[in-house]
Amino acid sequence: MALPDTEHLLLRRDGGVLHITLNRPAARNAMSLTMVSELQRSFDAVADDPTLRAVVLRGAGGHFCAGGDIKDMATARAQAAAGDADAYLRFNRQFGAMLEQANALPAVLICVLEGAVLGGGFGLACIADVALAADDARFGLPETSLGILPAQIAPFVVQRVGLTQARRLALTGARFDGRKAAHWGLVHEVATAAELDTLLTETLDALRHCAPAANRATKALLLKTLVQPLDQVLDQAAADFAAAVTGDEGAEGTLAFIQKRAPRWAEEI
Are the C-beta atoms of 44 and 6 separated by less than 8 Å? Predict the structure, then answer.
């Protein structure tokens, strides 16, 4: 697997884990179009890699992501003023396409959230399979206070916290910390900033014990529940179950259980 060259991301592969760090600390890792494009290319590079078990996404300099880059908005404004009627549409929709891509990653997506988790950063938090937050992280949807919409992240916020809570957060621009984010179901675990790395290590250790192919199939099945009729989901689930039971992982899992040992995949992350 060849990782792309990047300007605004730090990429590091460690066995079955790809660490992606948003790296614009002077801008609190505001999401530029360059960063969006680099994330898309990074996700493309690993989407079909069966040896990749997790992607860890975090930010440099004590912040996750403070939202969209105002400079890119100014560029889109200039393009629109020059007669490009679709400039704002392309600018906004590219971020949503990246969220769709990240949401559908076969590997487990773990977001480590600290400092600013605003706007687009909030959207990324909403598509994490596992979201770990610092207790003093600051979450919010400030878009309407700026006269714009949380357009591309809105569906993912609704899926994460429900329509009732999403309406309140989006329509008031409320700010809240990591503990409230956990209470509302936006994140799964909360720790002090100093304890986040330990929490990440524990999460990756738990992931070691889950079979890679079974995890990928389970994630795909869970996502299908949002878009397919129940009978189709259950038919596919039965087929996937049969394939798993008769496959290499099913045989190894059964044998490991009988022999009272860890399955071989537990040593491969």
Answer: no
Of 203, 222, 255, 189, whose CA–CA distance to 103 is shortest? Answer: 222
Predicted model pTM: 0.95
**Would you state the structure tokens that stand for residue 95, as one six-digit string?**
């971020």
The reported pLDDT for the residue numbered 75 is: 82
Residues 203/185/110/267 CA torsion (nearest 10 deg): 30
The Cα–Cα gap between 229 and 250 comes to 27
Please list the residues that pair with 197 across neighbouring strands.
none
d(CA 227, CA 219): 14
Neighbours of 55 (CB within 10 A): 22
For 232-243, the pLDDT digits (tens) are: 999 999 999 999
Q: Which fold has domain 212-267?
A: Lyase 2-enoyl-coa Hydratase; Chain  A, domain 2 (1.10.12)
Question: Could you give the residue range(s) of every CATH 1.10.12.10 domain in the chain?
Answer: 212-267
Q: How many CB atoms lie within 10 A of CB 5?
A: 9
CA–CA separation, 22 and 209 (whole Å): 28
Backbone angles phi, psi at 153, to 5 degrees: -90, -15
Buried b (16+ CB within 10 A) or exposed e, 230-269: eeebeeeeeebeeebeeeebbeebeeeeeeeeebebeeeb
The CATH number, out of the four listed (3.90.120.10, 3.30.565.10, 3.40.630.30, 3.90.226.10), of the domain defined by the range 9-208: 3.90.226.10
CA–CA distance, 67 with 225 (Å, rounded to integer):
29
Joined tokens for residue 196: 């986040």
Residues 77-88 pLDDT 10s: 888 888 887 888
